[in-house]
């Protein structure tokens, strides 16, 4: 396949970026068929002309914005539209409309003409709109978004229909989820309009290595829209110094003498996240691609960054907050990074879907390591392993790598979270998805999926480079019995080790804790229990830290919303911080550990 680039919209001497964020018109298609919008062709007119509209912020999830329970829990099509103008001087430029993400399935029209569709909730998509745009008057963009999760979507889900009309209204159905997070929906990230010249830079791929004190930078530029006449490539340091300059080469390998490496901030507190910029000029189209020079490798007992052992002091996260749901919010991003650093964390996993590019930028710049996870969460049913799922899963991995391939923060791809890897169907499935992932990533980062399987029953971890295991001893099993945690976790780690000579990260362990709830001696759901529970895990981690355990990631960074169910009290409360990003007692406990461990290594 010929891959299309999905470079982040950055402005430059040759490119203009304009945002379409703001208040849009909005309406859910709440008709009994949930399809009236298509019968009435809502995209052909302003939404206001076909019925009443709500005001909906973009970016944001729509679920928690209004006071309407039906909209919070809505399943089906919702519609957004707004007016926009295109500057007349854009006439000779390519005009691109780009969505950072929309959950789950999206169709986009401009001035009543369909311009693109996208399948999947957490990755960007874009299209040129020159053919339909009006440069001398208003334009209208209409977006239909459908949040329904089916056995073939990622994450998968299903619809459950009730036909007993004595007990349920006619046509009654509910969305069944296989994931432990609220299925927030809407236009979750920025909407940008941007320009490029007709001959333009479509994609840039940078792969780095280290040779002695030098950085080796391998780059490849893909252009489109005509033969490029002149090419100029330079590498500029963070301080603005041009360190290398090359002419007329769309592809090449260059050396940065006395390179400054990209380090996680705990490994190199004085110089974390050092980034260079590859400045590309193709026939006057200029794009500045940030990158860092670092290597990642896995041995049978270690995870190495720049040849040095790295121990992940991490958190599992969500894009989740009051009111905005999964919507992009710069204040929240800044607070999250500040709180990760307060904890002393040096890594996180994008559990359980790709996070916003603006979050990934901060990971690069601040030197926080990322396990970059696909939306393959909750693949617990045999029907989630069919050929349609497989083809889509491979497309999603391609899109994710296309987006994040140049990021030094990303050190591992996770293709899934807790799939039913005990099913025989999972073997061929993961062999294929993992091989595809390795194939697409030119930097050849390690690939994994996160497992909760029992090592004797698992058929798919044989394909991973590094084992990532989620464990809840003393929570879902032996509830209340923290005294069994050390024994059970030790037996488990040694069990995995007996079948795979691979390093292990515990990617989740955690206990539900209502902030401010106390009971002594400790009792489930209290802050005391969370502290005792976590401490028991830490004792076992300390036993294996010097052997083959290369990381620990608490579940989770903050409390987060889930669907309504009896196990969850207004969401999942395993956060070491509250949903408002304030520490529970366990936050302080974790901070003490992470700070002392990062000072001792
Ligand atoms: C898990 C899942 C995560 C859940 C967590 C829990 O294993 O990976 O999505 O939120 O357990 O709290 O049950």
UniProtKB/TrEMBL annotation:
EC number: 3.2.1.31
UniProt keyword list: Glycosidase, Hydrolase, Lysosome, Signal
Glycosyl hydrolases family 2 sugar binding domain span: 18-197
GO function term, MF aspect, one: beta-glucuronidase activity
Single GO cellular component term: extracellular space
InterPro entries given in the database record: Beta-gal/glucu_dom_sf, Galactose-bd-like_sf, GH, Glyco_hydro_2, Glyco_hydro_2_AS, Glyco_hydro_2_cat, Glyco_hydro_2_CS, Glyco_hydro_2_N
Gene Ontology biological process terms from the UniProt entry: carbohydrate metabolic process; glucuronoside catabolic process
Positions of the Glycoside hydrolase family 2 immunoglobulin-like beta-sandwich domain: 199-294
Domain of life the protein comes from: Eukaryota
Gene3D superfamilies from the UniProt entry: Galactose-binding domain-like, Glycosidases, Immunoglobulins
Ranges of residues in domain Glycoside hydrolase family 2 catalytic: 296-596
Catalytic activity, as annotated: a beta-D-glucuronoside + H2O = D-glucuronate + an alcohol
Function: Plays an important role in the degradation of dermatan and keratan sulfates.
Subunit relationships: Homotetramer.
PANTHER family in the cross-refs: BETA-GLUCURONIDASE
Protein name: Beta-glucuronidase
Organism (species): Pomacea canaliculata
């Amino acid at each position: 396949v010929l891959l299309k680039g999905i470079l982040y919209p950055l402005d430059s001497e040759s490119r203009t970026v304009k945002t379409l964020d703001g208040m849009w018109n909005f309406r859910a298609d709440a008709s009994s068929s949930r399809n009236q919008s298509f019968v009435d062709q809502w995209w052909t007119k302003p939404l206001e002309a076909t019925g009443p509209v709500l005001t909906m912020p973009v970016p944001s999830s729509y679920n928690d914005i209004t006071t309407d329970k039906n909209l919070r829990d809505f399943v089906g099509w919702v519609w957004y539209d707004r007016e926009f103008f295109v500057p007349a001087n854009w006439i000779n430029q390519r005009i691109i409309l780009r969505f950072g993400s929309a959950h789950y399935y999206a169709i986009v029209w401009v001035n009543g003409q369909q311009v693109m569709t996208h399948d999947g909730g957490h990755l960007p998509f874009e299209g040129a709109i020159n053919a339909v745009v009006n440069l001398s008057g208003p334009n209208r963009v209409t977006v239909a978004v459908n949040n329904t999760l089916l056995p073939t979507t990622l994450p998968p889900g299903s619809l459950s229909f009730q036909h007993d009309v004595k007990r349920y209204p006619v046509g009654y159905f509910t969305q069944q989820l296989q994931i432990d997070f609220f299925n927030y929906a809407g236009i979750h990230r920025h909407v940008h309009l941007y320009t490029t010249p007709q001959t333009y830079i479509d994609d840039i791929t940078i792969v780095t290595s280290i040779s002695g004190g030098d950085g080796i930078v391998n780059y490849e530029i893909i252009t489109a829209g005509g033969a490029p006449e002149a090419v100029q490539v330079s590498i500029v340091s963070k301080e603005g110094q041009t360190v290398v300059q090359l002419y007329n080469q769309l592809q090449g390998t260059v050396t940065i003498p006395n390179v400054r490496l990209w380090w996680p901030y705990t490994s190199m507190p004085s110089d974390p996240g050092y980034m260079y910029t590859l400045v590309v000029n193709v026939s006057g189209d200029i794009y500045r691609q940030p990158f860092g020079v670092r290597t990642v490798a896995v041995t049978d007992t270690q995870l190495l960054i720049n040849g040095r052992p790295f121990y992940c002091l991490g958190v599992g996260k969500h894009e989740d907050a009051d009111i905005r749901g999964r919507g992009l919010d710069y204040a929240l991003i800044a607070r999250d990074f500040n709180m990760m650093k307060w904890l002393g964390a040096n890594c996180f996993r994008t559990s359980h879907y790709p996070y916003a590019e603006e979050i990934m930028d901060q990971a690069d710049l601040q030197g926080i390591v990322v396990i970059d996870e696909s939306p393959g969460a909750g693949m617990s049913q045999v029907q989630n392993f069919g050929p349609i799922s497989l083809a889509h899963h491979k497309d999603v991995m391609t899109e994710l790598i296309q987006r994040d391939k140049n990021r030094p923060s990303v050190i591992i791809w996770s293709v899934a979270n807790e799939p039913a890897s005990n099913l025989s169907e999972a073997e061929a499935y993961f062999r294929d998805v993992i091989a595809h992932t390795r194939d697409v990533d030119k930097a050849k980062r390690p690939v994994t999926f996160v497992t909760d399987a029992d090592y004797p029953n698992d058929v798919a971890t044989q394909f991973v480079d590094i084992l990532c295991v989620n464990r809840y001893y003393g929570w879902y099993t032996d509830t209340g019995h923290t005294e069994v945690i050390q024994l059970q976790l030790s037996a488990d780690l040694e069990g995995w080790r007996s079948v795979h000579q691979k390093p292990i990260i515990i990617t989740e362990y955690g206990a539900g804790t209502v902030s401010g709830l106390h009971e002594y001696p400790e009792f489930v759901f209290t802050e005391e229990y969370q502290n005792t529970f976590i401490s028991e895990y830490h004792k076992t981690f300390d036993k294996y830290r010097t052997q083959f355990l290369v990381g620990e990631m608490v579940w989770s960074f903050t409390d987060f919303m889930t669907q309504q169910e009896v196990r969850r009290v207004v969401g999942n409360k395993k956060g070491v911080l509250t949903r408002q990003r304030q520490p529970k007692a366990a936050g302080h406990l974790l901070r003490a550990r992470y700070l002392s461990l990062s000072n001792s290594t």
